[in-house]
Structure formats: C-alpha cells, structure tokens
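Lecture notes, continued. The same structure-token format from the folding unit now serves as the input rather than the output. Read the line below as a description of shape only.
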C-alpha cells in the first residue's frame, strides 16, 4: 500500500450511500457473517445507533480520494469494541491493516476487543498485524449459529494472562482468566463483525 494514500476522516452523510453498497455485497456479508440491511433499516441503524452515539468513534476510510469503508469503536456488554467494513475493491491490499493502525492512534480506550467470524481469515490477519491476540476460550456461537472469535489488544491480554498466572497460584479457587472474561453476551443487539 506504499503507493496508496490511506487516511481517516469523520463520517459524512454522503458516505452512507457508499457504506450501504459495501454491505450489500454477498461475499462481504458471507465473510463478515452479518446480514445486509435494506436502505431504510441501514439508515436507521447508522443515524440512531452509530452517528447518534456520542461515546463511539466513527471514521471513514479513504484511499487516495475514494471512500474505501468505515471503522468504528463503541461500548457493548461492558467492553470497548472495534469493527470495520471495507468495500471489496480494497480487500487484500493492506488498507484495513493500515486503517486500523491509524485508528488505534486515536482510540485510546483499553482494553479494546474485536469479534470476528472464525472463517474470516483476512480480518483475523488484520487484527494480528495490529497487535491483537485471540482471547483464551472466548469462542462463541450466537443464536445465528456463527462461530465467532474474540481478539483483544496484545498488551491488555498479556497483562491479564500474567495476572491470571499470579492469581491462580495464590488463590486456586478464584475464577480463571477465561471465565473472568466471559461476560454474558447479549445477542439481541447484534455486534458488528469485521469485514474486509
């Protein structure tokens, strides 16, 4: 991606039509294991859940002068999550990796987590290249029967694992690291799965 200019900017209302087209792509929805929405539902979701969320960060990913996708962070079930969605034209070109790296410079909340469909190898690589590690035993299938993996920012997971080892040696009856991290996940509000 050395020849491409990859940047982030605030989401503009004109970007929504492009984001809508991105999430209509059948391969993208299969990879993300997330269904597309019709125009009305898509706009309602973006206006009511994303743009109206004062605590969430939302950015448009721009490659050269074109809108490539979006990247977001938000609170859900007691965790700060990050997610992104790219148009197919930008898959496999390092755009998601570079965009997430830039986003992490401004998203300072830690720990930071990402859920990804287990079959989405591209998004797993993007997360790993940006220092995310798979959280032990944080593997779930929701009511949609999609196998999801949870990734956490590397330093936070390393600190938690170190804490777990110390806690386990001192207090054998305390819950393990994996159990401590497994909070009930509400499937009533579907989480954004990462798509490339």
């Amino acid at each position: 991606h050395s020849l491409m200019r990859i940047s982030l900017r605030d989401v503009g209302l004109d970007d929504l039509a492009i984001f809508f087209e991105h999430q209509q792509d059948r391969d993208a929805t299969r990879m993300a294991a997330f269904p597309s929405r019709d125009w009305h539902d898509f706009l309602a979701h973006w206006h009511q859940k994303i743009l109206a969320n004062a605590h969430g960060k939302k950015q448009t990913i721009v490659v050269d002068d074109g809108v490539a996708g979006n990247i977001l962070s938000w609170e859900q079930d007691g965790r700060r999550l990050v997610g992104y969605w790219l148009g197919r034209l930008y898959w496999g070109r390092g755009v998601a990796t570079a965009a997430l790296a830039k986003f992490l410079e401004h998203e300072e909340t830690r720990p930071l987590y990402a859920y990804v469909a287990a079959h989405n190898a591209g998004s797993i690589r993007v997360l790993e290249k940006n220092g995310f590690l798979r959280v032990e035993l944080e593997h779930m299938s929701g009511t949609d029967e999609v196998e999801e993996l949870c990734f956490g920012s590397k330093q936070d997971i390393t600190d938690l694992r170190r804490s777990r080892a110390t806690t386990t040696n001192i207090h054998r009856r305390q819950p393990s690291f994996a159990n401590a991290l497994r909070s009930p996940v509400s499937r009533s509000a579907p989480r954004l799965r990462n798509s490339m």
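Point for the exam: The CA atoms of residues 77 and 185 lie 6 Å apart.
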